[in-house]
Write a structure and sequence with these properties.
Length: 245
């Protein structure tokens, strides 16, 4: 079984030290904040939701600081631009619950949030500023999974535990009409990360991060296309008209 379509969405931009993505690298890097719409015969899925309302600014106004989120880049507006009602999303799969991946959860209010139990539990007790509880604990229905999980039971959207960046990080293996695609989330920020097996300058667990990166690299070696989590060069090949504001 394959999904009907996989559509990448640009839901904001971040400008951070490059070492945030690959340890030891100098300077800064402006990176996309992705989300993905997955059309399946049994319901629409959103993988990650981008940045949320607390970072939103009116479209066309100047960027201030390291977060760039124009109103029309919020995931609900991205969906509407495709003719998709945000309330029609059946499942929202969060790779993890940091603000650039779960901040937009509130924009798809009727979706059931699918997250690893380890991530859900950790996010509620962590003092990491990247977690903002009101953004992910919104009162939406939550499906807590543990380990590998076949979302529709037909092999088309398979969730893969890829801990390391956070305790309960997960990636997704999506079977599309043109082949398997791996949505890495922050388990692999840049193509260079996988090519050189290099970690960011911060992780919850370096050893687990390295193992997860190897898992994803093995899928690439087996022929899957890898969609790297925050790679601006790769992203331009998916969304050639997209650019930071």
């Amino acid at each position: 079984m394959t999904v009907d379509a996989l559509v990448p969405l640009t839901c904001g931009w971040l400008t951070l030290p490059t070492a945030f993505f690959i340890v030891g690298e100098p300077d800064e890097l402006t990176v996309p904040v992705p989300a993905y719409l997955i059309d399946h015969p049994n319901g629409r899925v959103l993988f990650d939701a981008g940045l949320g309302p607390r970072f939103r600014r009116p479209t066309g106004t100047p960027v201030e600081g390291w977060v760039d989120l124009e109103s029309d880049a919020c995931v609900d507006e991205r969906l509407r631009a495709l003719g998709v009602d945000p309330t029609s999303i059946r499942y929202l799969v969060n790779s993890h619950l940091h603000s650039d991946h779960a901040g937009g959860n509130t924009f798809v209010p009727d979706a059931t949030v699918v997250v690893q139990r380890a991530e859900w539990d950790f996010a509620h007790v962590s003092d990491d500023f990247a977690y903002h509880t009101p953004e992910f604990d919104t009162g939406q229905d939550v499906m807590l999974v543990e380990g590998h999980f076949d979302l529709f039971g037909d092999g088309s959207v398979r969730l893969i535990p890829t801990p390391g960046h956070t305790p309960g990080h997960q990636s997704a293996l999506v079977r599309t009409p043109t082949g398997d695609v791996v949505l890495t989330g922050d388990a692999c920020n840049l193509k260079q990360s996988m090519d050189e097996m290099r970690l960011p300058d911060h992780a919850h667990d370096d050893a687990l991060y390295r193992q997860s990166l190897q898992t994803l690299r093995s899928l690439r070696d087996q022929g899957a296309s890898v969609f790297y989590g925050h790679d601006p060069v790769f992203w331009a090949t998916l969304n050639p008209s997209s650019e930071a504001g």
